[in-house]
Amino acid sequence: MAGCESSYHKTSNLKIHHTVRGSYKKLDGSDYLHSDESLKIIYIVRGHGHAHVVGNCYPIEEGDIIIANANEMHVLRIDEGLFHERISLYIEESVTIPFANYKVDFFGVFKNRRKGENNRIEKKLADQHGLSNLIREIFALVKSNEKEDEILAQCSVIRLLIMLKKAIPHAINNEIVHKNDQRVREILDYINNHLEEDITLDILAENFFISKHYLCHVFKSNVGMTVYEYVTLKRILLCNKLICEGMNIGEASLASGFNQYSNFYKAFRKYMGMSPSEYKQSLEN
User: Fold this and answer.
1) Which of 142, 170, 198 is the last residue of a domain?
2) According to the model, what pLDDT value does residue 174 have?
3) Are residues 191 and 134 in the same domain?
4) Domain holding 187: CATH number?
5) Range of the domain at 121
6) How many CA atoms lie within 13 A of 275 on its CB side?
7) Quick one: how far is CA 248 from the chain centroid?
8) Could you tell me which residues come within 8 angstroms of residue 167 by beta carbon, excluding any fewer than 6 positions away?
């Protein structure tokens, strides 16, 4: 099998993205460090590589599960040339509303976890808690497009959240390939808090008392992308947020730290796969 096949399925509070690639290579924006607006559960059906989450890097194998909380930066780097398949679930908190009377904190285990830690559940642990079977079951139910199956899918999502709550405390970090130190976390925090300002290697090196050469090396090895790529992507994500809140494109680009519209436009098309106006129109539709 060659090329890429993707399918999207959704209910009122759940989205599923199923991806199959015959020979893996970078194809779209999901291959860049990004974050989502809801809890994301990624089940690796086939293929292996690494997952970068907020600077930490985890090895991933068939049957593993990667968890990314809302706004938790992540990217999968699947080894090129291999067959790859994954199922990604995007779960809204509203899925738990019918079960509110039970007063169970379904999402606390994700929100209270430090970003970049306990993101990987290895296959053995996932199988012990029935996670892979539940994800496959949810995928099949949502894909059927039957109302009755949508109700069953919602119940299965609750089961999945409960079993994840039980599994996550047993997911340990000792298999992290690269674990970022406090200095890298401080650099990431600085960038995230100063996106609207000028951010250069000189400024970062001066603020954190390290050479530009070492800064580039330690940042790329921990985060999985260059400082420039990370700053640009974070600014694109901030711009998207501002556009969603009603700000016009030009104002949003300036407020996100882009001083020249031409640079913003090129970066937006690169990371989003569409123009800013097309993105805004997609929100209106």
Assistant:
1) 170
2) 45
3) no
4) 1.10.10.60
5) 4-170
6) 6
7) 26
8) 121, 125, 126, 128, 129, 131
Alpha-carbon distances, residue 212 vs 186, 204, 226 (angstroms) = 16, 8, 12
DSSP strands (E only) in the chain: 4-10, 14-21, 39-46, 49-53, 56-60, 65-68, 74-78, 84-91, 120-121
pLDDT exceeds cutoff 60 at 23: no
Q: Which pLDDT score is estimated for 28?
A: 43
Q: Note whether residue 176 is domain-resident.
A: no
Residue in the block written with tokens 């997609």: 282
| Residue 241: partners with Cβ closer than 8 Å, 6 or more residues away | none
CA–CA separation, 78 and 49 (whole Å): 4
| The token pair that represents 210 in the structure block | 């390290």
Q: Give the pLDDT confidence of 121-158 residue by residue, as tens digits.
A: 999 999 999 999 999 999 999 999 899 999 999 999 99
Distance, in Å, from the CA atom of 225 to the CA atom of 191, rounded to the nearest integer, reads: 14
pLDDT higher for 279 or 137?
Answer: 137
- Is 153 found in the same domain as 19? yes
Residue 191 CB-half CA count within 13 A: 24
Residue-level pLDDT at 199: 95
pLDDT of residue 89: 97
- HSE-up (13 A, CA, CB side) for residue 130: 10
CA distance 40 to 45: 16
Could you tell me which residues are beta bridge partners of residue 72?
none
